[in-house]
Structure formats: C-alpha cells, structure tokens
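Budget justification note: compute hours in this period were largely spent on complex prediction jobs such as the one shown. Inputs:
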Amino acid sequence: MTTTADQLVDDYLKRLRKELAGLPRERRRELEQEISEHIAEARATLSAQNEAEVRTLLDRIGDPADIAAEARERFGVAPRKTGAVEIGALVLLPIGGVVLPVIGWIVGVILLWASQAWTTRDKLIGTLVLPGGMLVPFGLGFIADSGGACVESSGGANTCSGGTGPLGIAAIIVLFLLPLASAVYLAMRMRRGRAVLAT
Amino acid sequence: MVSGGQQDALITQMRRGTLQYCVLALLAEEQRYGFDLVRALAEADGMVTSEGTIYPLLSRLRRDGLVESTWQESPSGPPRRYYRLTESGRAALEGFKREWDRFRDAVDHFVERKAR
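Corresponding output:
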C-alpha cells in the first residue's frame, strides 16, 4: 500500500525525469538512479516515515529543475529554451501537412525531434498522433465531399446519395481533432526554459 | 558598487568553483560512497544548497578522471558505489591547495586588516 510519503517521492522522481530530458541518456539514467538511491537511503535514516520528514528530505535534495540545470552545466548541454523550434513544431504538426502537403508535416516532425523540450515518449506521441496531421482528414473530407451526388426530386427536396454517411463524417471529425489534441498535449508537456544562473 | 544580486551570484560562483575540491579533499582521506559523501559536504554550513546537485558534479569528476568508482556489496541493501581519488585527482587537489592558500592569504591580508 503506497503511503503519502511514497507518493511524494514518486512525484519528485517523476518531476526529476521530466526536467532531465534533453540530457544524454546515460547521464540521465545514472542521475535518476543515484538520486533515487539517495532518497531511499535517507528515508532509512528517518525516525518516522511521515509526510513532513519526507518533505524536508526532498527539500534538502533540492528542486529537480536545479539539479537538471547543474547537470546541464556540468556536461555542457545548452540550456533549454522555449523558442522557434518548439513553436514551429506545435504549428506545423497539425496544419503543416495541409498548408504544404506532406512536406510541411515532415518539417514539423523534424523540429519536434530536434527540440529538447520533450521526452522521447512525448515525441513519439506527437509523431504518431496523427501522421500527416490534419492532412489525412482534410484529404478524406475532400474525397467524401465529392463522392456523393445530390439529386433534386420532383417534390423540390434534395436527396443526396452516395458519399459518406454520418459514421464517416464522425470519423473524419475525430481525425481532425486528433492532431489538435496532440498539439495541445505537446504544448502542455513542453518544458519551459529555466533562467540559467549567471556564469 | 556590487549589488545584492551580484554579490549572490559571486558567492554562488565561488562555491561552484571550490566545491569540487572539497569533494576531492574528502576523498583524499578515505573512499566514500555517494550518500555518505553528499551528507558530509552538506554538513559544512553554506557549501551545498541542494544535495542532489552533488551527483552531476561527481559524474563530471569521474568523466574527467579525477575520481574513480567501484561497486561494493553493502550489508544493508543494494551494492554501493564507492568513490576514491585517482592520481590526477590527487595532483589537482595539491595544485588547488597551493593556489587556495595564496588566494586566501591575499584576500585575508586586505579583508582582515585591523583598523589603524
């Protein structure tokens, strides 16, 4: 059964992992493990495993962002900046494929993977949901639109046959929303640049 | 005049520059494992603001060949990574000690002057 203390530690380590993304994988894994073990050992020395003690302990270890900034400085990795690359990716992934078919989306993917603002998992999500961005539903919508034929009957009412039924329309709408949701997800998961201590 | 913020930045810089030599000095006495080393450093008032930041430093010292580590079984729990000085580390520490003595004496000479 997880206690509040366990939850605190878990959350801390999750934040640490998020802040460390962008560092070389070996360094990142190593740091995560070392800090995790440090926490475990520190907890073992605590008289009580209550929430207050664990909070104090985690405060002593420091803000994950500070640890990540230190790691970046020690290993000469450029500090993360939210910039043109991230904005470019966020815009091109959903609509790039529509504006400049296929190529626009591919550029978005390149920017996504070049950026240090997202973990690999997030980058995969951004690429696979939805490949081509809105180009696919756009194209499908186009086809669907021109597939049907509307005939004016004698009563003056239009009967449209063929084309896409309501199910198809719903599917296309979903396909439109997916790249949008993906872009919103990426925007939320984006790590903002931290001011680096004056060196 | 140096502003408060500038002074903070200066002190932070001094700490960062000297912290690694404090690590080397601790390891010159005996080999230590991560947790123990980090806690020992944190004991000196003001040297360490965030214990977690020692680990990137240790990693860097390893990469630069100033320290090396070995895994050893621990009586209570998973194996521990023990750090110790290398020859380069020892030499770097000696070099720093000389510079630090000179620097400290020079600064003290002015800062510690008695009013005449």
